């Protein structure tokens, strides 16, 4: 089975990381290739090093792009894949139209988040999903949203959780924890939807109260300069570290006492699962697919509010707990996700879905 996976970009981010996991764990019955509509980068280079074909089209992926549709159309006509699997809004729009025009037998759209679609967008994606043989939702929450929005009927959608492969090291090169500081980790795009400013403000509130914490922010994005300005304004640079993009962020997260994900919207929660697989206790927003991952007060904690004051109050409470209690929650968290999101489980579920929507 020849499968082309279409992404908007293959640089860095949650969906791009999933592409690398797919390449590193592919099974012989699926011959996969990868397509980046606009640009490649770190992930596309890593996938190429794994020996897979990567097509970087270098055309604008903003909806609508006739150039993107035509570039994809000619690629599909030339390569003749059995399946085109498009991942995310821009990839879905351009990839499904192009694969339908090219006569690809199986066209799969995947919703990777919970979008804020207006009326026109809902109409457009209803047509896109209608031209698809099937739709993948990365969580039950995403599936419910697609159905509630009227974009696709429930019987056309399959919920398939993202694959997660933990990469946390415990070698001698690690920087050891400072026993007198409660260390908090965050990984994600520094964008409003991930809400890193609220976490930063929560940390500053705690530091101004004299609570000795340390915040590690791992990632890059449009809010980078705003975060730097906020740190400079309050003078807590020795307590708040910005690491930027890191290839293996869980090597840093594994050194933390608590992982916090304060997202305003979250289709799945990849970094949440990765932190749990590192046995780090997690405090995360009760949004999107996250409540499907965390059992509140048992395998982690859920935030019912994403404002700085509430986040600060929850961190203060957790920082006061005995370390043995935090570690116990971390161990329970790991046990709860260890096999649930494995790459093999994901790939087999995908293969079964492809077969269910077309008889090869």
How would you summarize the topology of this molecule?
Layout lengths: L1 E8 L4 H11 L6 E9 L2 H8 L4 E3 L9 H14 L3 E5 L1 H13 L4 E6 L7 H12 L3 E4 L2 H10 L7 E3 L22 E6 L8 H13 L4 E6 L5 H11 L5 E5 L5 H4 L4 E4 L8 H8 L4 E4 L15 E3 L4 H12 L3 H15 L5 H15 L3
Parallel strand pairs: 1-2, 1-4, 2-3, 4-5, 5-6, 6-7, 8-9, 8-11, 9-10, 11-12, 12-13
Helix pairs in contact: 1-2, 3-4, 4-5, 7-8, 7-11, 10-12
Strand order of the largest sheet: 3-2-1-4-5-6-7
Total number of helical segments? 13
Order of helices and strands: EHEHEHEHEHEHEEHEHEHEHEEHHH
Compute the CA-based radius of gyration: 21 Å
Q: Strand percentage, roughly? A: 15-25%
Summarize the amount of helix as a percent range.
Answer: 40-55%
**What's the count of strands?**
13
- Structural class call reads alpha/beta
Query: How far from one another are the termini?
Result: 8 Å
Low-confidence stretches: 170-178
Largest sheet: 7 strands, parallel
The average pLDDT score comes to 92
């Amino acid at each position: 089975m020849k499968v082309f996976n279409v992404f908007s970009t293959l640089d860095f981010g949650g969906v791009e990381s999933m592409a690398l996991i797919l390449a590193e764990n592919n099974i012989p019955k699926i011959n996969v290739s990868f397509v980046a509509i606009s640009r490649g980068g770190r992930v596309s280079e890593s996938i190429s090093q794994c020996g897979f074909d990567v097509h970087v089209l270098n055309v604008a992926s903003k909806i609508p792009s006739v150039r993107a549709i035509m570039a994809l159309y000619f690629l599909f006509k030339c390569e003749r894949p059995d399946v085109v699997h498009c991942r995310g809004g821009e990839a879905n729009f351009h990839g499904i139209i192009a694969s339908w025009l090219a006569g690809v037998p199986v066209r799969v759209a995947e919703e990777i988040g919970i979008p804020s679609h207006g009326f026109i967008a809902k109409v457009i994606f209803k047509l896109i999903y209608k031209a698809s043989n099937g739709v993948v939702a990365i969580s039950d929450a995403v599936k419910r949203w697609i159905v509630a929005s009227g974009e696709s009927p429930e019987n056309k959608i399959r919920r398939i959780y993202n694959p997660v492969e933990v990469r946390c090291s415990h070698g001698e090169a690690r920087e050891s924890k400072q026993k007198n500081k409660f260390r908090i980790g965050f990984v994600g795009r520094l964008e409003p939807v991930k809400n890193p400013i609220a976490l930063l403000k929560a940390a500053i509130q705690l530091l101004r109260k004299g609570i000795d914490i340390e915040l590690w922010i791992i990632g890059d994005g449009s809010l980078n300069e705003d975060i730097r300005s906020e740190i400079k304004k309050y003078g807590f640079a020795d307590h708040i570290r910005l690491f930027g993009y890191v290839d293996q962020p869980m090597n840093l997260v594994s050194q933390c006492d608590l992982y916090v994900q304060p997202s305003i919207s979250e289709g799945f929660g990849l970094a949440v699962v990765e932190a749990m697989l590192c046995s780090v206790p997690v405090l995360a927003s009760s949004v999107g697919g996250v409540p499907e991952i965390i059992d509140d007060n048992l395998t982690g904690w859920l935030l019912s509010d994403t404002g700085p004051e509430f986040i600060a109050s929850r961190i203060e409470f957790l920082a006061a707990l005995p370390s043995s209690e935090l570690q116990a929650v971390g161990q329970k968290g790991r046990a709860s996700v260890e096999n649930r999101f494995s790459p093999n489980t994901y790939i087999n579920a995908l293969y079964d879905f492809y077969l269910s929507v077309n008889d090869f």
